[in-house]
Structures are given as structure tokens and as C-alpha cells.
Give the backbone structure.
Amino acid sequence: MTDRTPEPRAGRGCTAAITGLRTSDSGRLVVVTVELTDGQHSETRTLRLNTRQYCDLTPVRGPISRGYFAQLEQESRLCEAMRFGERLLAYAPNTPWRLVQKLRRRGFTREEAETAVDRFRQMGIIDEEADLRRETELCLRKLWGAGRIRVHLQTCGFSKEALSALPELLAEVDFAANCAELVRRRYGDIPSDHAGCNRVMAALIRYGYTSSEIRRAARLLSGEDD
């Protein structure tokens, strides 16, 4: 149970009390008004909690300890991080790593950002496996090879646990056929001259295709491997 009783004033110099509680954002938030005073000066702080935080902390009007006030401040800051994170996720899917980076650029600490992302995981708001499948499908539509897809997903910040599902997602993909289709779209065919052939081969390797996939793609293009 959280201690909400005021701490002894001797040597502390400041006391705190909750002076107001009200809902906002159609009941999704609880606004907690706290008055701080040192006997001569006073200051009012407005803190916002989501409904889960409110139920966990159960703030009530009256004096509170400095420790409880610090906890309210910390949770209010986390609430702010989650609200900003929800807006980011509503705009576009984000991997946990990418969302942490965006929250940090917004001014939240690493701990605040990572805690917000952990809460999203618990609430089912972030589904890394579904995001991985979606991003993989986009890469395949671009006719990328497996090597480039893996590097791209790692750059996006997907966890090792999520990436472990990638081999299964790519197991049924005919990368040689995709490679041949990429050549058709970009080059029409593999050039017959040595320099041109090497240039196309280098480009296909950058797209993430292996040498064996490129050789089979060449056979498909020539009609030797129908």
C-alpha cells in the first residue's frame, strides 16, 4: 500500500496536499491538482493520470507525503509519454525500438520511453509480430532479396525474438523468380556484355539476392528454367 500520509515537516521545508480531482478527455484521464507549500510560498501542480494509473494509485483529497507526490509526478510523466506514443502509433506502426527513439527525441528519458513501450505491450497496443509480417510483405512487394529484408528489419529495430520468425515467413518465397521479375522491370534483361552484366549483378546483390538466386533468375529469363 502506498503511504499517502504527510512526512514530518522538520527539515523537510515543504508539504503537499491534493486539492482537486476531476476527469477529462471523456473520462480517459484523471486530473490531480496538488498544492505545494513551504509555509510562506505555495505552488500548484496539475498532474494527469490514465484510468489504470488512477486505480493503482487511488489518490484522494488531503495531505500527501513527498514520496507519494514524487510517485504521482512520475506516473503523470509516464502518462504524457503514453499519450504521445498513442498518437504516433495511430499515425503509423512503430517497432518498440523506433517508438523509444521518437519518445526520447520528444524529451522523455530512456526509462520513461521504455516503460511506456512496456505498458503498450501489456495492453496489446504493440504487436511486434504483426508489424514484422506487415513490413516483410512491403519489402517483398519491392522485390527485395532475403538479405536486404533482414538488414532492413534489423535497422527498423525489431527484436531478436521477432526476427526469429523471419525464416518461416520467407520459407515459401521464390526469390529467384522475384529476382527475375526485378530484372525485367528495371533492366528488361541481363546485359550480354561483360561490363553491363557485372553492373546488374552488383545491383542484384545489393538488393539482397544470392549468387545462386541470380544464376537461376538468369535461366528463367532465358527460358532455360521454365
